[in-house]
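Subject: Aldo/keto reductase structure
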Amino acid sequence: MTPELDEIDLDTVPLGRTGLRTSELQLGTWRFGRVTEAGNVEIDEARARELLDGYEAAGGRYIDTADVYGGGDCERWIGDWLDERDRERYTIASKVYWQIRDGDPNSRGTNRKNVRHRVDALLDRLDTDYVDILYIHRWDDETPARELMKTLNGLVESGKVHYLGASTLRPNAWKVARANEIARNEGWEPFTVLQPRYNLVDREVEGDYLEFARQRDLAVSPWSPLGQGFLTGKYDRDEDLPEESKAAESSRFQEAYLTEENFDVHDELDAVADEVDATPAQTALAWLAGRDGVTAPIVGARTTDQLAENLAAAAIDLSDEQIDRLTAAKPGPYDGL
């Protein structure tokens, strides 16, 4: 039985070598204000406030957003919510990269003009003087690493940003390593937090990326810990797609996740979930949170019931044998090395 949100008491863990502590499960807000391919808004402002309230009630204090989420509405809603609270009690992370103005190539990427403008704009929407973590949402190969790190260091020195992070879809440890080496040589602020995609069926970061993070004591906060909902148990290989599901509105999701290989992984996930009297989502989150090198997964939800289910994963303990079975269900690309 899933506890109520105010019955959950999230713990905190060190955020790498930043000196900060983060909630063991971070709140992701990418669905706030998001319009689907079918033209539906996934989470409106009223629902967003309910989710923020619920996360707070469970002891959560780390909120992850980005300047493009909901076309900026996500940050505005978070800013309005924070305005009623003590800002210092919350860790806020945002991201910059994706193009925001049609026909303006300089409104995309990590060039100095774009980054400085975007940070000023997101601080205004959040109604705050600083963000705790500023991520580059993706890597921009057109902006030299030295130029990027000099720009980001200036934001830290100005007090607009406290720490730097890098988000990625594919492993790129060497790019982070190169940028951090430049920063160290110049006495600039390096990247200290990493945000890769990682879950039971998306295992690309296993190997060099996670090993690099462990060796350098970099925090790792994975996004999409439930495979965009695939690992929640709502999909069946032999049944039609639920009408209001992610899969029903996204052909890309169907191609990426609704595969025989991934459903085989889900069969093992269901078996372990039954053994520990938990839901598949909770079990998948517990597996991820316990991975060597993972600091705190970023969880999202459409409803407060889903949020409570996900956050309750913090109390689930898996045996070594169960962890090994889940891990072996879909070996990573570097398995055995």
